[in-house]
Amino acid sequence: MRLIVDGKSIEFEADPEMPLLWALRDLAGKTGPKFGCGIAACGACTVHIGGEAVRSCTLPVGQVEGEVTTIEGLAAGGKLHPVQQAWLDEQVAQCGYCQAGQIMSAAALLEANPDPTDQDIDEAMNGNLCRCGTYPRIRAAIKKAAALKTAGI
Superkingdom, according to UniProt (predicted)? Predict the structure, then answer.
């Protein structure tokens, strides 16, 4: 099989039914996407395929069409993505386990909607669970990231 992951072509042998998450972690060495539930309910495994946020724990690798971006590939040119910068500025992370998935979902939201309302944020982030309960900080970070993107930062 061949995938483009974070801008690089990788080739590997895998059962086409293997979840993309395990192909990324075990075969491509990408440890950002996390296993949380295995049923696409928690969001810890979120990656982008063709710019859209998808849960990689239930998507068979053989069904992947388009470039895969993980949290490791979100930043460009050595500069943090605005969502990553906002996460730091707003001190979102506590335990950090869910953060890669949260950030990937937030980045996809801002690509589709550069000025989301609270309701837009709630809908887009629904299904991304945070055991530490940092939801108010997550919302604040998404709003800050939207402002950073608008300012071209």
Answer: Bacteria
